[in-house]
Specification:
Layout: H1 2-8, E1 13-16, E2 34-39, E3 49-52, E4 58-62, H2 68-73, E5 78-80, H3 84-98, E6 104-107, E7 113-115, H4 127-175, H5 186-189, H6 207-224
Parallel strand pairs: 1-2
Antiparallel strand pairs: 2-6, 3-4, 4-5, 6-7
Helix pairs in contact: 3-4
Keywords: Kinase, Transferase
Biased composition (Low complexity): 176-192
Protein name: Polyphosphate kinase 1
Length: 228
């Protein structure tokens, strides 16, 4: 009803739907300014973008499409796109879908889908193929940029390290004093003192001699030392 009211008030409404649509476009006095399109292509079209204004300066992205179960029985969210760069990306996406003249269909007042009548001299535009090509180009550019950045990070430390090493070597050569001969140690200068001579050890006696000597001492003690 609100879409019909907007059309009756002179607002031009353009819709891109995925499949079934419950409103007819081009009904005199009801939906004269309504244009409904769908794109039957490789990917599922379910963008859920809402743009308002002549230049699409007000853009919302939403988690819900325009179905009663979503708008009345579910918790959904729609948020504005405020960043200029992001708004430009969304505008490009919408304009590309509206310029599709190969896979797009348009809803008639009879409720049937008809092909878009394109100028024979106009280039063929398949919006999904264009978006896919752009995605590949962005991915390739990102990979090349990362490779260049990684190469620069590897080269830069080597270039910075070479002057530093030369500076350190020169500084060390200038600052280090000439080496001097170390003085000879005191022990090495004085002649070594001769080792003290050990007295000659008495010759060792045999067991028999020691036994006889012990017996002699014992008899002397018994018979000669009794007075003591």
């Amino acid at each position: 009803d609100k879409i019909s009211e907007a059309c009756e008030a002179g607002v031009r409404v353009v819709m891109i739907v995925r499949g079934i649509c419950c409103i007819k476009a081009g009904v005199p006095g009801k939906t004269d300014g309504l244009v409904i399109r769908q794109i039957a292509g490789r990917f599922l079209e379910h963008a859920r973008i809402y743009a308002f204004g002549e230049e699409m300066d007000t853009i919302y992205l939403s988690s819900a499409d325009m179905m009663t179960r979503n708008t009345e029985r579910r918790v959904e969210i729609a948020y504005p796109v405020r960043d200029p760069a992001c708004r430009e990306i969304v505008r490009h996406f919408i304009e590309l879908q509206l310029s599709d003249n190969v896979k797009a269909r348009q809803l008639t007042a009879e409720g049937t889908w008809a092909r878009i009548e394109a100028d024979p001299d106009a280039p063929r535009i398949v919006c999904q193929e264009v978006l896919l090509r752009e995605a590949y180009e962005r991915a390739r550019a990102a990979v090349e940029a990362r490779a260049d950045a990684s190469k620069a990070e590897r080269v830069q430390p080597e270039a910075d390290a070479a002057p530093d090493l030369a500076t350190v070597e020169v500084a060390e050569d200038d600052a280090a004093p000439a080496p001097k001969a170390a003085p000879a140690p005191a022990d090495a200068a004085a002649p070594a003192a001769p080792a003290p001579s050990r007295p000659d050890a008495a010759p060792r006696r045999g067991r028999v001699s020691r036994a006889l000597s012990l017996f002699g001492q014992a008899f002397g003690t018994l018979f000669g030392g009794g007075d003591e």
